[in-house]
Write a structure and sequence with these properties.
The protein is mainly α. It has 3 helices and no strands. The longest helix is centred in the first third of the chain and has 20 residues. It starts with a helix and ends with a helix.
Length: 59
């Protein structure tokens, strides 16, 4: 069995990798929204909502 320090270190590394992967998708949200609804004028508003949602509604 791993001691608790190794487990915390492994958990920290996994969390860092998953956060980095999610952050890499953020620049593409406005492009995706524009493709989804090209007639929508408020792409900047919807992009801001998508970026801010995890901070406004934490689980």
């Amino acid at each position: 069995m791993l001691n608790w320090k190794k487990q915390v270190w492994l958990l920290w590394c996994c969390q860092l990798i998953s956060i980095a992967a999610m952050e890499m998708s953020e620049p593409f949200w406005p492009l995706f929204l524009r493709q989804l609804r090209p007639e929508t004028v408020n792409i900047t508003v919807w992009s801001a909502i998508i970026y801010g949602a995890p901070y406004w509604f934490p689980v």
